[in-house]
Fold this protein.
Amino acid sequence: MNLHTDAAFTKVHGLVSTLNLNTVCQSAKCPNRHECWNRGTATIMILGDICTRDCSFCAVTTGHPAGLDPDEPARVAEAVRSMALKYVVLTSVTRDDLADGGASAFAETIRAVRSAVPGIRVEVLTPDFKGIEEHLRTVLDAAPDVFGHNLETVRRLQPAIRPQASYDCSLSGLRFAATSGGGIAVKSGVMVGLGESDDELYEAMRDLRDAGCRLLTLGQYLAPTRGHVQPVRFVEPAEFERYAAKARELGFGDVASAPLVRSSYRAEQLWVSG
């Protein structure tokens, strides 16, 4: 396959390298990296590139992370300013080793970005913070425009796919964000093709909507390596359209549903429409 790269791709690649930043585009082996970087966008991953959890679907390295980098928020802000972004997505590895799970780093980064680029819209895609409301509140008090946390899969498959996480913990965190006030849009995502039934997927959609989620992403799970859990099936595009129709019927403000949709794919468009 011949992947075209243009000046925007080169600029994004250069910035993240020069400023020593991590992106989920690279660390999670996202299939949309070339498209997004060619459009001059990237999802910045804070708190390092080593995760304390070991989910069977994820390509991010698992291990024992180093301490926090106090200069990271300023470097993220400089990257966002240099890219002339109007909308940025900030995500992270899970840092169960930190007292607040990295919540204060999220808040500091949001504020640094807003200081560097007045008027920018900020979306966060956070870990679950073990459901601790104090940590969730730390992030929410920094007033992101969108608070995202992914449910990832249906209830039955959670122990195999996210063994160190909890379906109900994820829902409770989303519910807390949705009832926090401030007009923050709440967003989540689910992968399909892992062996879930349509009924199970619709149950997960209902649970997310009941938790206050306004925005939803649905995409085909693709194994990043042969060592990760493998897809059970590949969902046809027409089925994704049917899933999107069901989500709208359930009351989601908007949904992105297609094989290569990922959590932050064209996130600014979903936020505007939702």
